[in-house]
Specification:
Layout lengths: L4 E6 L2 E6 L4 E3 L4 E2 H19 L7
Antiparallel strand pairs: 1-2, 3-4
């Protein structure tokens, strides 16, 4: 059975993610959790380049 939601501590914030096992990219099988892990892993590198830009994830 998949989890209905998870809570993640990111910096000083706690973020609730609903349906973390939901597949967002069927061709690769990437789930919401996978996408969050990916962006968390590259955040220190990419955030300076995204500062002051409109962004949708």
């Amino acid at each position: 059975m998949s989890k209905k939601h998870i809570e993640l501590k990111i910096g000083r914030r706690t973020v609730t993610v609903s349906n973390p096992d939901k597949v967002l990219y069927p061709a690769s099988g990437f789930t919401k959790s996978n996408v969050i892990e990916y962006y968390s892993g590259i955040a220190d590198t990419i955030v300076p380049y995204l500062r002051d830009r409109a962004l949708t994830l």
